[in-house]
Amino acid sequence: MEIIRDLTHFQAEKNMAVSIGNFDGVHLGGHAAIVKTIVTLAKERGFESGLVTFDPHPMKFFGAGGVKLLQTTEMKVREFERLGGWINYFCSILIKRWQVSILRSLSVSSCSKN
Fold first, then answer.
1. Where are the beta strands (DSSP E) in the chain?
2. Going by fewer Cβ within 10 Å, which terminus of the chain is more open, N or C?
3. CATH number assigned to the domain comprising residue 75
């Protein structure tokens, strides 16, 4: 599993099946099912597989008080490797203020046109 922390120069060599989420508290139940689904879909279609998460947790970034994380990013990586080493990429996106201002300026209609 390749760990990606900066998407600036990342270029996937194949199409990808991905799941996006916080994945806090990686566990055998739901997260194992997500990994299995992503890997299965990717293999069926000849894609690569990936998980995308955020650092820091979006609720923490936007100032929600009392957010207690169950796992660090490094702990998540270890758990996902243990759950299913078949994931090709684990992308931990560092949230930055300038990115948020760009995202806020986009509207759903402008995204759907592309």
1. 2-4, 16-20, 48-55, 89-94
2. C
3. 3.40.50.620
